[in-house]
Amino acid sequence: MSLELEPEVSLKEQFEALMIREDKLDIQDFLNNQNISDVAELVDEFPDYEGQILANMSVHRAVSVFKILDLPTQKHVIKELPPFKTAELLNELPADDRTSFLEELPSNVVRELIKLLNPEERKITLSLLGYPENSIGRLMTPDYVYIYPYNTVSEVFDTIRKYGKDSETINVLYVIDEKGELIDDIRIRDIILAAPDKRVEELIDGRFIALKAYDDQETANEAFKMNNRVALPVVSNTNKLLGIVTIDDVLWVANEEFSEDMQKMGGTEALDEPYLETPLIKLFKKRVVWLIVLFLGELLTASAMAFFEDEIAKAVVLALFIPLIISSGGNSGSQASTLVIQAMAVGEVTLSDWWKVMRREIIQGLMLGTALGLIGFVRIFIWHSISPEIYGNNWDEIGYVVGLSLVGVVLWGTLSGSMLPLFLKKLGADPAVSSAPFVATLVDVTGLIIYFSTAFLFLKGILL
Known about the structure:
Layout lengths: L10 H11 L2 H9 L3 H10 L4 H6 L3 H10 L2 H10 L2 H10 L2 H8 L4 H8 L4 H11 L16 E2 L5 H11 L8 E5 L5 E6 H6 L17 E2 L4 H11 L3 E5 L5 E6 H19 L14 H28 L1 H6 L7 H24 L8 H33 L8 H32 L9 H24 L5
Parallel strand pairs: 1-2, 4-5
Antiparallel strand pairs: 2-3, 5-6
Helix pairs in contact: 3-5, 5-7, 8-10, 13-14, 15-20, 17-18, 17-19, 17-20, 18-19, 19-20
């Protein structure tokens, strides 16, 4: 006789049953015993209950859930929570996460929320918000453990026990002098392995990496990549220790930068908020500027074709290959632009590498152009074999024109696409604005000039 097992009730179904019963104690117990990620999924699944979900959790767990929600959901939750619960949540949030959230809100809303903070947290938040946008100061947290060089290892452990629970991390401890200046950082491993009566000054080596509060956040990203740390200290211009930046905040910044670059490379201004949350008028303004710029650029293509109007009239067959020529140049330019921008973003390519990049792209352009040129020539040969009347007796000259034009246009596309980001970087602009559509528009115009110049050279006295 076989036993039939009852189907396991899903988390979603359990939650729905509890909400129907409206037993507040059971709801609290249920939510406080779930994984943080599972609760976050419930918030996404039940937007009508998102405020109630966090309100029925212990404040520490509610903070953990709130931190991993996306910005629109965080805004909705804050609106739904009663004022006392909002105050609890904001006061318990780490200073850096609280600052990241507040800087995305309108100033009048920020003023009201700051009033809910206790005096100490309000002071910290106002201090962090005082740093320029996109600066490292906005990312740092004042929750860290610092020690003095004269402390013994035993005293260090006492300090950790006293302040460690409120610290973002205790993997690294920061050694300062009486003036608050950073002397060194020391790993907790070195403390654990040292004798209890040994002093900190005997363990430090004076080699440390520190970030400046007013530096751009991308500097922090580079520093973390190069130094394999989970946290780095942030100091003032006079080397006063102000706070620390942890790897999770830097990863968040890197993700934001990546999204921004992708939007710019697609031919639009970077969005300040999620796509579905962006008002239509604002989205229109972000997109229309680049479209107008690209449209005006394409008008030059029409001007170039008008300049070669006589050649087109004499040899209409040349017009058949215009889309082929200009699209090949645009595609090769977009490829090169994307590769170089990505390499610059991860530090693989710098301005000093411009000649190396150019040399590689010249070789690549010739190789790629030759491959496409051969395909173009073969295509004309095959079509001529099937229908000789399409290209007439001069099919081979037309094939040479198309083949050589593809070599020239693809070579020019790769050079333009690879050099433009470096040129913009040299001028202090964002390389991502040399987006694929922008490079394609540039190559369209010059591609026509290359194509018809080659045609005039080979077909003068024959078709032209």
